[in-house]
């Protein structure tokens, strides 16, 4: 029997350390984000030519979402929605570039400091937060807008564009914790950029992991984005007779899969896979750049459109959740979107959801309990390329999907239930639905200073 004094001592320790115990018992959280990976580029989403065994295994033992959506259809604004939980119609970042009237030019836009990021939310809840890769939510000249300034204890960031003191960043230089130091990506030493980035994260886990804290890790990969300086020669798919550009595309996706395998193995080794919530997704649909043809591997799984489009091919992306011993095993058709990620992770961590978010936690769906649905999902994108192609919007309400080319005053309507590939515009057959959707599209897009077409036609 324990003595009274030891019971009292135990009780005192519990009181003293109650807060830290609560923090330590919070689950680890990991976001694995691919760049421009299409809905159909993984085996678990029907891909038959490109091998992705690690991600497929994650989907097989976790929950695979069929209706998972990016924040919008291009990098910076989509990632902004992911990090803030704010939908694209009133987010700060509405396109890769905004229009600065003061000098009449299109340029980068940073997240507002008044908008809390997922990293800030979790760091404030006691998490150790770590980031490697592409940030794309700040401006090059202002380090306070970089990942290190937005909630990450450890941040190694690819950076390009002008330096505050003049000159340009060499994007092979990965900037550590702001500009504390630089790790040079000597691309002759790695099979691919994501191998280099994974090495950085593995080293962090070996040397800087604070086991007293739960971990939030955000791996922002390069693959299969078109822009990569160098890829080491590999034997991958050499016997297939594919065009070289397509062989390399497939090879990079398979190498990304291998890097995820290395990271998961490390987490398993150090004990961080236990009680860890993992989300794998992509920031937008497949690209068709540098002469890569997104139809060669059926990268959007037949969906219409690709990166920068408001059709499903531009915004519907892989979404896989695995939480060892806790997540449901199977497939979900619950429509979820990037602005749901912040409330979901708040739910996972057991903390309050920031008021700014438009999202709904999809944790109940992951756990197999009753799930609240969105009334509608909304996207918009401002291109910097001019008025004609400038402003695109989309809304999904039930099975209705409207796509509006606002600067042309044209709204298309699709019935996803019978036409998931958006082949037949039925706007003429349902003018009352179009009118309702147009009202939503106008209402959801708030005017904002740096995106002159936001707000829709006539504003
Ligand atoms: Ca992207």
Kindly describe this structure:
- With about 450 residues, the chain is an alpha/beta fold.
- The protein is about 25% helix and about 20% strand.
- It has 2 domains: about 25-375, Alkaline Phosphatase, subunit A, CATH 3.40.720; about 380-445, Arylsulfatase, C-terminal domain.
- The strands form 4 sheets. A 10-stranded mixed sheet has the order 9-8-7-6-10-1-11-12-2-13, sandwiched between helices. Strands 15-16-17-18 form a 4-stranded antiparallel sheet, covered by helices on one side.
- The protein is globular.
- The model is unreliable at about 1-15 (pLDDT under 50).
- Calcium ion binds next to loops.
List the helices and strands and how they pair.
Layout: H1 4-24, E1 28-34, H2 53-61, E2 63-65, E3 68-69, H3 75-84, E4 98-100, E5 105-107, H4 118-124, E6 128-134, E7 154-158, E8 173-176, E9 181-184, H5 193-207, E10 215-220, H6 244-269, E11 276-282, H7 312-315, E12 319-323, E13 330-332, E14 336-337, H8 341-349, H9 363-367, E15 377-382, E16 391-397, E17 400-405, E18 410-415, H10 431-444
Parallel strand pairs: 1-10, 1-11, 2-13, 3-14, 6-7, 6-10
Antiparallel strand pairs: 2-12, 4-5, 7-8, 8-9, 11-12, 15-16, 16-17, 17-18
Helix pairs in contact: 5-6
This protein binds calcium ion.
Calcium ion is lined by residues 35-36, 75, 225, 283-284.
